Amino acid sequence: MESSSLSRSNLTSLRTFSFTIYGTTVLVSTYFPLFYAGLGFTSSQIGILYALGPMISLFANLLWSIASDRYRTIKKIMCILLIGQIIMSYILSISTSFSVIMLIITVFYFFYYPVLPLSDTMAINAAREHGKSFITIRIFGSIGYAFFALVIGYVLSLIGSHRTMWVTMTIAAIALIITLFIKDQSTPVAKMNMSGIWSILRQKELLWFFGCVFCLALSVRMNDAFLTITLKDLGAGENIIGWAQLASSCSEIPIFLFLSLYGERFKELPLLIFASLVFATRFLLVGLTDSAYAIVGIQLLHSLSFGIFYVTSIRMLTRLIPDEFRATGMALFTIVWSSASGLLSGTFGGMVFQELGRRQFYLIAMGFALAACLGFASRYLHRGPGLRAGKSTGSSKNV
């Protein structure tokens, strides 16, 4: 009975933690660009600042995740990361120079980017330990994102976007307190070594998967970096921007629930093909519309694009990557999905947005999504009957 009580307590703490850390994600993806714009930075400068995070996360994700696997602790590393975020946020709050902010935001990203893959690793481990679905924990991140997208928008409309960093510090501090109540990872893991990583990366199917994910991620990160700027250019205030983020995050919740219950009935590749096609449609519509309110409605397609893609990709990763390298595997996925793609899309996207305008920007994003769709489709069509039927050596249960 005591063990059952401790399990429920740990799962509750993990769900609360997942809920809270997505508040910082809302700020970084949605309101940091407005903070930069408020300081007078150009679209190209904002693109450079956006690209710095993915560049740093290329090694930050691996560094912290390898340390987690090697020392068998996620909780302690999570505390270090959150403390680093608080300190860097304070320094950013008193900085106005582009060169200074470029330096400080680089360090901030070093502490920010590894939090989500490590959080997902904790959730996956806890879900398997307690016989639960990973989605029953991760869905609270979506709820948290929806909550903070709306609340932060209203808060910043009252106190001003120049106080964005103070909101960041508050949310990181709350997450740090919650971390103290989370049970540390107790699942035995193998000692990390590079030969194990190379053995994973030599898998042709995994390399193909990462290649398609990277292509899709280019379009997604372009949209992430400049959606708020697009809304601002169309006359939207912080409240409307908050509603746009709320629409996207709320829309993914029923998809997460549906796939957690019935996802195993659907093959991975058809789901990824469909999600990529919806991403392409979504970016085309954003590029064509001239209404900020229409974009709020278009954001509902987030459910059929990101919602399906995320659950399916995590399911595929757990099949392709051995359990003992799970933290590092999640870090590799994050590097492809967020880091490498964000680095290119931030610098390239900033120049395209400034020089060619919004419509051409989103048409290019649509092109990348369609390329990913073709990549997933070609792999599906060229697989043998057994693989096409979805047979695998691993198990994706409880993911």
From TrEMBL:
<keyword id="KW-1003">Cell membrane</keyword>
<feature type="transmembrane region" description="Helical">
    <location>
        <begin position="137"/>
        <end position="159"/>
    </location>
</feature>
<feature type="transmembrane region" description="Helical">
    <location>
        <begin position="98"/>
        <end position="116"/>
    </location>
</feature>
<feature type="transmembrane region" description="Helical">
    <location>
        <begin position="332"/>
        <end position="354"/>
    </location>
</feature>
<feature type="transmembrane region" description="Helical">
    <location>
        <begin position="240"/>
        <end position="262"/>
    </location>
</feature>
<feature type="transmembrane region" description="Helical">
    <location>
        <begin position="203"/>
        <end position="220"/>
    </location>
</feature>
<feature type="transmembrane region" description="Helical">
    <location>
        <begin position="74"/>
        <end position="92"/>
    </location>
</feature>
<feature type="transmembrane region" description="Helical">
    <location>
        <begin position="269"/>
        <end position="286"/>
    </location>
</feature>
<feature type="transmembrane region" description="Helical">
    <location>
        <begin position="47"/>
        <end position="67"/>
    </location>
</feature>
<protein>
    <submittedName>
        <fullName>MFS transporter</fullName>
    </submittedName>
</protein>
<feature type="transmembrane region" description="Helical">
    <location>
        <begin position="292"/>
        <end position="311"/>
    </location>
</feature>
<dbReference type="InterPro" id="IPR020846">
    <property type="entry name" value="MFS_dom"/>
</dbReference>
<dbReference type="Pfam" id="PF12832">
    <property type="entry name" value="MFS_1_like"/>
</dbReference>
<keyword id="KW-0472">Membrane</keyword>
<keyword id="KW-0997">Cell inner membrane</keyword>
<keyword id="KW-0812">Transmembrane</keyword>
<feature type="domain" description="Major facilitator superfamily (MFS) profile">
    <location>
        <begin position="172"/>
        <end position="399"/>
    </location>
</feature>
<dbReference type="InterPro" id="IPR036259">
    <property type="entry name" value="MFS_trans_sf"/>
</dbReference>
<feature type="transmembrane region" description="Helical">
    <location>
        <begin position="360"/>
        <end position="381"/>
    </location>
</feature>
<keyword id="KW-1133">Transmembrane helix</keyword>
<dbReference type="InterPro" id="IPR024989">
    <property type="entry name" value="MFS_assoc_dom"/>
</dbReference>
<keyword id="KW-0813">Transport</keyword>
<feature type="transmembrane region" description="Helical">
    <location>
        <begin position="165"/>
        <end position="182"/>
    </location>
</feature>
<feature type="transmembrane region" description="Helical">
    <location>
        <begin position="21"/>
        <end position="41"/>
    </location>
</feature>
